[in-house]
What does this fold into?
Amino acid sequence: MKILYLYLFKRLMYGFALSLLVLLSIETFLSITTESEDLNVGNYSFYIMLKYIIYTIPKSIFELFPYAILIGTMLSLGTMAADREFIAIHTAGISVKKIIQIILFQVFFISLIFYILSDFIVPKYTQHAEFIKNSAINKTLIHNPNGTWFKDENKFITIKQIYSRNRLEDITIYYYDDAYKLLKTEVVQNANFENNKWKLTNITETNLLTQPIQIQVYDQIIKDDFIDQKLIRIRVSDPVNISFLDVLENLNYLKSNNLDDSEQKMIFWEKLFKPISTIIMLFLAMPFLFGKYRDATLGKRIVIGLFIGIIFFVVSSILPNLANVIGFTPFINVLLPNALFIILGLHLFQKQLESGLQ
It folds into this structure.
């Protein structure tokens, strides 16, 4: 049995590595083609473009991983089925159910290790890649003429331009007391976070408690505490760019400030379900390799299996958002597509697998 485990693992890894290499090559070529359109915009040179693409490779691998697992596993198993290896294994007394269990366990183990490692690596390199490009082309992450609103304890903040968590422009802060009485306002033209301090330029403070109202203007102020960067991270960060620990920190922060945390909860459950979703997708596609050969050719079975697996990821991306609009909780939003596809997978398993090899 140990020999079978190792043999299946080697075949699985070979197919996965080959599929990932092909998919990553295509993705990198498309990235170079897309990024070349921004060449010579601002300081975005060919050298910076290459740095950006290299730093985004971990993100590309993260996004391509489930598809590489699906395609690589299906092709490896398809080759084994075409060579009648599964019939030989079945003749040795090992059922197809057992083979599928072994493969699913191995894929789950690989997925679990991959997503744990990527959670530490991908956000770091992706954030750095975005910083390199945005700094070169002077691109804003958020540009809203009416301002993007935040709440931080007893402050309401509106920011019109966000370049990064460390660089903000056109900021207005409204300070309130516990009874929500406006105490003062602070208008800042530029705010840069450097050396663990906020450097503010062109500041206008209006104190509403004095009679008459006092207005003070400063060219520059250095502050230890200005705007909590967690607020900026929550608003501007793509789910791929934040780690699981960051999500937990965001949830605690939002809860302590009585702010809506449904979006962060959705990200939390999506990250938690990632390895499981990969297994479900593969489970949906695998029965088509083991059904009776008289119904369809092996190549057709592989194509159908791949199609079902890809449909799973498309539907599982759309359905949670639809359920969110209806008003389901984030946990149910993420659980629902997985539960539906598990039921579908069990149906396919009974219909296809048990009618063929046992």
In short: The two ends are 18 Å apart (CA to CA). The mean pLDDT is 83. DSSP finds eleven helices and six strands in the chain.
